[in-house]
User: Fold this.
Amino acid sequence: MTTTAPAPFSLRRIAVPAFGPALLFSIGEGAVLPVVALSARDLGASVAVAALVVTLIGLGSWFFNLPASLITLKFGERWAIVGAALASALALAAAAVSPLVPGGLWLLAAAIGVVGMAASVFNLARQKYLTEAVPVAFRARALSTLGGVNRIGIFVGPFLGAAVMQFAGITGAYWTGVVAMLAAAALAVTIPELVAKPAPADGVPAQQATLRSVAGSHAGVFLTVGMGVLLLSAIRSSRQAVIPLWAEHLGMDATQASLIYGISGAIDMLVFYPAGKLMDRKGRLWVAVPSTLIMGTAMLLIPLSTGFLGMMLAALLIGFGNGISSGLNMTLGADFSPENGRGQFLGIWRFMVDAGATAGPVLLSGVTAVASLAAGVAATGLLGFAAAVVFAITVPRLKHRRNY
Assistant:
């Protein structure tokens, strides 16, 4: 009797169910992000309140990361993904009809908060699924591709939303998001179930991990490598504000600023897969340190730019550094996550990542208010160098925790 050897693993074979829902979900997010503040203003919000409504997506995602881990554990990765996409579709439909109901601003704010919370569930479940479904030898490529797919969706979404708004007005962006989220949910149903882990040899099941037990047993990872991913997230989020703000400081018009931002984003989307391949073959450090050094250097160069060309070159450098770090936070989280308690670990990990994403713009704003925009940009640049130091010290030292 002969047995057939299992086919070698191929990312291409699982591409549609693994990455398709993520692409559609990020397209839905990208379609509505540019119009949330405008919708709030149309509903009577002040500029400050409109800005607060926009931040509810990030805040909802940040604070819901820990509950998201429990939801994923209870319902499983596939149904958590499906449910999150459906919840987002419902929330965006509520946002679309908010101008038609009394208290529409409150409805809009609640809907945007729900989108952020659903995104935390969706992203955590997707990361956990790929961590367990993809062999370690392909892990960085899979998670870098996931990060790249999210970037592509956020890039494409505004264009699709703008096209629909030509015929349906500002609510067209929300209906575009609804369709994308429903498509993501439908495609997510086709995600193959994970193969159940075999029972322990002694027949005694492992004690169920909790958020508290995982936080305590992995405190060393969270306080070392975790600080690196927090700093990386901070400089990533800061760059989104730095580019348009410095372009305005130099007297550029909106078209020039958008061109610089768009080309930087295009470079960002082109390099994610080679970076993942490098991490799989050479190790995480080969991307972790260079990417943070590149972004830190580019941030320090921005205040030195005095015109369009200098600003463009610095922005291209930022895009390249950010692009090669695509999936790095997720890959490191997957590497150090335990089999028992992985969902809880990733929930805490993503909480730290989102904390960094919130802290970066706050640092930029605070230093700018106290000193100047140039000082604020330089301060965020130093975050990149700090992240590089943390990664250089901690990633090799903790490498034994997960064989990659």
About this structure: The domain at 211-401 is CATH 1.20.1250.20 (Growth Hormone; Chain: A;). The radius of gyration is 21 Å. Residues 1-5, 398-404 have pLDDT under 50 and may be disordered.
